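re: ur msg from earlier - yeah i can do the beta-D-glucopyranose complex, just paste it... oh wait u already did. ok heres what im feeding in:
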Amino acid sequence: MFATSETENYSFPKSFAWGATTSAYQIEGGWDADGKGLNIWDTFTHQGGDRVFMNQTGDVACGSYTLWEEDLKCIKQLGLTHYRFSLSWSRLLPDGTTGFINQKGIEFYNKVIDSLLANNITPVLTVYHFDMPQAVEDLGGWNSEKTVAIFEKYAEFCYETFGDRVKFWITMNEPNLHSIFGYEVGIHAPGKKQPSYGAYQAGHNMLLAHAKAWHKYNTDFRNKQNGSVSISIYAPWSEPFDPSSAKDKEAAETYMSFFSHWIAKPIFIDGDYPEIMKLKISEYSKKQGLNVSRLPEFTEEEKAMVKGTADFFCLQYYSTAKHRHSPEMSEEPSFFSEQLYDPDWPIAGSDIFHVVPWGLRKLLGYIKEIYNNPVIYITENGYPQKDPPVLEDKQRWKYIEDTLKELSKAINIDGVDVRGYFVWSLIDNFEWAEGCNLRFGLFHVDFEQAALPRSPYYSAFQYSDVVKRNGLPGPVDKLTLT
Ligand code: BGC
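and the outut:
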């Protein structure tokens, strides 16, 4: 605990990790360069048909595959202590298996990792961020149990290849969002519309794959490499619509069970899904005349295997919504239950993005309580601007600043053990189905120019000051990035 005066200064613990995040498909481009294999986002975007805003693709994106040095300059200008990025699976293993290894892919990531370390920046490596090799998808992707073993092998290959230098691993990014968007509603690659079961099935296989990958590290690499492994979870906060209504409180809690405890509880508590999910889905499956629940079950052996497979909690917070009791919510609640927002909450670049910095503090307190005070890293938090963005992005900075104040209170007053904070994103990039229409970068990327120049937003100046001071005295008048 810190003294109140320090709290007022919004201080952060010593050695706090200050980072920014990107992901391979969203920034690299070079979709077919140097032997890279096809992945599901290449296929999805090349199909056209307005799957993506203006039929844009990540073929070029920010060009980071050839412009890595430009990204490194941004990272150094911010003074980050950590940089989180992901590996493109099909750049390393074009068909997803170690049957053929693409040396050029290894060289690229070696260059990134080595230059980060040479600059005293800790690499945080996400093994998988939404971009499955097409060849693995063709075998069933996350709908298939076969992908569990294929992913485990891929993770092993990553530890073997980069683990001498990388000590902070995230096996996969947001299995909850990935399975809902990619395998249930199909608005993300691989575009599968499998209502009522797709997300449960994909999420189940991702949980097993993550657990296998964690055990692989734990058994074969931890002793010699001394790193840590976790998984990142998308976690919105939900408020009861009427705080005095027990039913609305239950609705908010149920929503969070379906959205984030679905993935977090098996890993952090007992290897199994939340009771409310098991109950509601099986009851409703029966009503539909099915003789098994649409929510897959873990065997006892699998439960024991999944439980405890994260060395810390990687939380990704963007926004908050309100929930209230409704007839559908009591049948089978779903990820898509009615979201309500306070009219006083400002809206950022996208209709679903409501600016609620205090939601993070509530969420952190809640996670501390139900997950036994884990070590937490906020591995993503950010604010989109709609295209065309303004360089003087003061609204975004206000969001980040207010969020950091809430975070500081969570640490200093509520005693939540948060060890780091990462902005999504380092640079504007390919925002999935939104293409380049939503910009999350601390640095602007001019997608109209072939050289794809990066320029700092106002937020970059401010954030670099926070990193330098390890806290938030703000506002600063003028700062020169070197
Ligand atoms: C994902 C990112 C995405 C960001 C902003 C996160 O859920 O991990 O890939 O760009 O949100 O939407």
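cool cool. DSSP finds 17 helices and 14 strands in the chain. ping me if u need the other ligands too
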